[in-house]
Sequence to fold (178 residues):
Amino acid sequence: MSDPQKAGSEVYATMQSLIASHFPLLAGIDDQILIVFKDKATKSGEVVIAGKTSKASPLLGVVSDTAYTFVITLASDHWQTLTEDQREALLFHHLAACSVVENEEDGSLACSVRVPDVSFFREEVEKYGFWRTSGAVPEADIIQELFGDKPDPEAQKAAKEEAKKAKAAARKGARKAP
Fold:
């Protein structure tokens, strides 16, 4: 595994453009947003995690010339597969997670990382609809559009069994090592 690499100027140019057009409160701290690439995307089950937004550690200010507020970490392998529009959308998503609220009294800024506005599981929407918001039960084609193909339970079961076997083999091999 290689070390994370700071994003290039083209990524920062896209970030600047998005901030200018959509995120006025980030304009004051745009130089405090660090964008880095790591080699590989992680997965949660079968879902690719293309990036992550986090508050920057104060330690970054100790080892660099900038006291960063946010760090956006993107997966290089996934980034390479995206179109320019998809790359912009991914950056937009992560910038939207960067919350800046100005204190009206003293002008100070409170920064935090937001979670997305919508978070549903396919099965939840199929059974209860959009119960957290409108309560509407979407048509099957909307569910298909939102979530893609319904997972095959037999394929998921087989994948879990293969993962168990691989872990057991790895443990067994680790025990035999001198």
The chain has two domains: 5-113, 122-176.
